[in-house]
Automatic annotation (TrEMBL):
It is found in: Nucleus. One of its GO terms (biological process) is regulation of photomorphogenesis. Residues 1-11 have a biased composition (Basic and acidic residues). It comes from Eragrostis curvula. GO terms for molecular function: DNA binding; DNA-binding transcription factor activity, RNA polymerase II-specific. GO terms for cellular component: nucleus. SUPFAM superfamilies: Leucine zipper domain. This is Transcription factor HY5. Residues 1-57 are annotated as: Disordered. InterPro entries: bZIP, bZIP_sf, Hac1/HY5. Residues 72-113 form a coiled coil.
Length: 133
């Protein structure tokens, strides 16, 4: 795995070209100027040298590498946030289950008390319609 410093480092582009020119200290000669002005006058696109293409490719690769690293960091932060939310929701769910159980037991006890109170008021021999035997 590459470190952040290695990812953001721009590679040296001191590639030697035929004729002694280099991409790092590129000198534009009169022949190149003439070719560029002729290309502009004719409306044609300038032909890129292999070194220019390689430079552009390396810049694109570097941007992609940095972008991929940032995406991985965003994903990691998102997953960390989701994990925190999961723990919070699990805790809340556990508390609610406990409260539910307590209320269920309380409800059952109150129903039992109500049943016992109703039976004792009517007397042991009474029926639900209120008639005695």
């Amino acid at each position: 795995m590459e470190s952040d410093e290695e990812i953001r480092r721009v590679p040296e582009l001191g590639l030697e070209l035929p004729g002694g020119a280099s991409t790092s200290g590129r000198e534009v000669g009169s022949a190149e100027r003439a070719q560029a002005s002729a290309a502009q006058a004719g409306g044609r696109r300038r032909v890129r040298s292999p070194a220019d293409k390689e430079h552009k490719r390396l810049k694109r690769l570097l941007r992609n590498r940095v972008s991929a690293q940032q995406a991985r960091e965003r994903k990691k932060a998102y997953l960390t946030d989701l994990e925190v939310k999961v723990k919070d929701l699990e805790k809340k769910n556990s508390e609610m289950e406990e409260k539910f159980s307590t209320l269920q037991n309380e409800n059952q006890m109150l129903r039992q008390i109500l049943k016992n109170t109703t039976v004792s008021r009517r007397g042991p021999g009474s029926t639900a319609s209120g008639e005695g035997q």
